[in-house]
Amino acid sequence: MKINFESGGAEVIDRIIKAYGFRTKLEYSNYLGTSSANMSARYKKGFFPSDLVVRCMAETGATLEWLVTGEGEFSPNEPTPKETVLSDETLEKLERLVTLKEKGAITEQEFNDLKAKLI
Question: Residues in domain Bacteriophage CI repressor N-terminal (predicted)?
């Protein structure tokens, strides 16, 4: 994969915005805590936004290949969404887990691990 650091930045920023799930550059600017004028200038200059790419990869799991080229998988480690149907028994177990977590009997990590096994 070859990265052109002098052009193509606008398309990369568009993919970054998509990776985060934002609809506009303004939403993304607000998330970054920067002005919309700053984002607009970066968009127009077109330079490769390496700092934004690295941050996006870390925060969303997007792959470098997809962010740079738009090809490949967005996030190869992302599980395929599936419909979950919970039985009454499973819901009762989840409620007990929540109670244990709220009482401090189990940690957040233990709660998440046990919840994942149930669902």
Answer: 11-73
Per-residue CA distances from 72 to 15, 25, 50, 67, 106 (Å): 13, 24, 19, 9, 40
- At residue 72, the pLDDT reads 82
- State the Cα–Cα distance between residues 91 and 27, nearest whole angstrom: 36
Q: What is the pLDDT of residue 36?
A: 86
Give how far Cα 101 sits from Cα of 14, 45, 107, 110, Å: 40, 50, 6, 9
Rounded to the nearest 10 degrees, what angle do helices 9-20 and 50-60 cross at? 20
